[in-house]
Amino acid sequence: MTELDRRTLLRAGLVAGAGVAGGALLGGSGAGAAPAWRPAGRPVLTHGVQSGDVTADSALVWTRADRPGRMLVEVSRRPDFRGARQLRGPVLAPTGDFTGKVRLRGLPDSERLHYRVRVESLERHGLVSEPLIGSLTTAPDRHRRRDVRFVWTGDVVGQGWGIAPDFGGMSIFRAMGETRPDFFLCSGDTVYADGPLVESVTLPDGRIWRNMVTPEKSKVAETLTEYRGQFAYNLLDEHLRAFAATVPQINQWDDHEVLNNWYPGEVLDDPRYTEQRVDVLAARARQAFNEWLPVPVDGPMYRRLSYGPSLDVFVLDMRTHKDPNDGNTYADPKRGLLGREQREWLIRELKRSRATWKVIANDLPIGVVVPDGPGAQEGVAQGDPGAPAGRELEFAEVLRATHRAGVTGMVFLTADVHYTAAHHYDPARAAVGDFTPFWEFVSGPAHAGAFGPNALDGTFGPQAVFVHAPPMANTSPAEGFQHFGEVTIDGESEALTVHLRDRDGASLWTTTLPAP
């Protein structure tokens, strides 16, 4: 293999992201204060390396250190790093919890690249950490047609089921890695900030599930330090760390990054929380999310990522602009989950897309009823099979506008409900007829209690073609019913194949959709 061209690698430099200012503004954590002690010896990278939001010519690379230091990244086509070029990244500072990101630019498209990360001491020039190595595959450019494979799931460390070494840890990440995907889509609930862990849980058959527990995971997260600790905890798992080092991520947030079923403006009545203002909690949670994941921090959380002529991924933000949870039967088209700007962006970008397949990452499903206690709804649907109402109005607009514009190849991918399913939507079965038939595939949880199945709302005519759900609520990961999905697009025929898989990678159900 030839070495990376120096001008190509260094073109446009890098983007640094060592954290978001806001300790005083967001209040309460004390995480921004300088440590009173100075670690001895070489700096240490504490939680591995990750990459994310990869394009045809760029990628984000992430790490965290045990002290302030300068992030250094090398990248090469060669695994031995011969001829690698080094980029000087941001200073990893206490204000960003010693995390940092580098945006690699000018990368060759559709290639497997290797990166090596170190941190250099600020107090002693030349004193650097042991390196950590990762790899990633860049997306094909808009002219290059090739096979594309990715995996998706959601719901990580929920309902009290933490990392249990006696039960193999979070082995589903090993199984996902064995499919050798181009990228991983995490469809929300990347952490469970409202799900404290206890040291042991007795399973129905008498076995003992023993959780690894940290101080931040022993109570609901409220402070910035506690929200950061949710992400740090997940990276204690060896399978997740290894997966994150070799598979680029696309991350969405849903509710449990903050707390269950939250919406902007909500005020809690929950004795577990000393801070009852959800907007304050959400701001702290979002800072931790931005610091601890390889996600872009500029601009809105919704975004479009392209993988050559075959695939565009539309990543939705169904939380930041969410209206209050009520009966969800209102007639006001200005309300909804997405908000006006995101809704208009989605319609506009779907119309502009020339990709064969438009995958819409919707962390809340469309036709699955997700209640929020008696009389209120968390999701899009509310169980009334009639004409669109409430949040359904928003999606009726998206489906109608794209149908009238002749948009084809739309596929929805979701998680949230803690089982796996394949739902086909057809106007012939629906209360509304102005849309093109589409599929919505559900997968999860990755490592959480398993539930379901939920009822379907008939407004958009869903049919449950396949469902795999547990026999009882909150079935532990020890019993299986953990799931991920795999999508493969054939580079020649552009047919899209979906496998719904269990935690060991076995295919439970599959279908192939011909190119539209």
Describe the structure.
By secondary structure, this protein is of the alpha+beta class. The chain has two domains: 45-137, Purple acid phosphatase-like, N-terminal (Immunoglobulin-like); 148-513, Purple Acid Phosphatase, chain A, domain 2, CATH 3.60.21. Helix content is 15%, strand content 25%. It has eight helices and 22 strands. α4 (224-234) packs across α6 and α7 runs parallel beside α8 (392-404).
What's the topology here?
Elements: H1 6-10, H2 23-26, E1 45-52, E2 59-65, E3 69-76, E4 85-92, E5 99-104, E6 112-121, E7 132-137, E8 148-153, H3 172-177, E9 183-186, E10 200-202, E11 208-210, H4 224-234, H5 238-246, E12 249-251, H6 278-292, E13 303-307, E14 311-315, H7 340-352, E15 357-361, H8 392-404, E16 410-414, E17 420-425, E18 438-442, E19 462-468, E20 483-489, E21 496-502, E22 507-513
Parallel strand pairs: 8-9, 9-12, 14-15, 15-16, 16-18
Antiparallel strand pairs: 1-2, 2-5, 3-4, 3-6, 6-7, 8-20, 10-11, 13-14, 17-18, 17-19, 20-21, 21-22
Throw out a few tags for this protein:
single chain; 516 residues; alpha+beta; Immunoglobulin-like; Purple Acid Phosphatase, chain A, domain 2; 2 domains; seven-stranded mixed beta sheet; six-stranded mixed beta sheet; 22 strands; 15% helix; 25% strand; disordered N terminus; PhoD-like_MPP; Alkaline phosphatase; TAT_signal; PhoD_N
Please state the second-level CATH architecture of the largest domain: 4-Layer Sandwich
The total count of helices amounts to: 8
Distance between the termini: 37 Å
Structural domains: how many: 2
Low-confidence stretches: 1-36
Helix content, binned percent: 10-25%
Average pLDDT: 92
Outline the biggest β-sheet. 7 strands, mixed
Rg value:
22 Å
- Here the CATH topology of the largest domain equals Purple Acid Phosphatase, chain A, domain 2
User: Which superfamily, in CATH terms, is the homologous superfamily of the largest domain?
Assistant: Alkaline phosphatase D (PhoD)
Structural class: alpha+beta
According to DSSP, the number of beta strands is 22
Q: Note the beta-strand portion.
A: 25-35%
* Series of secondary-structure elements, N-terminal to C-terminal: HHEEEEEEEEHEEEHHEHEEHEHEEEEEEE
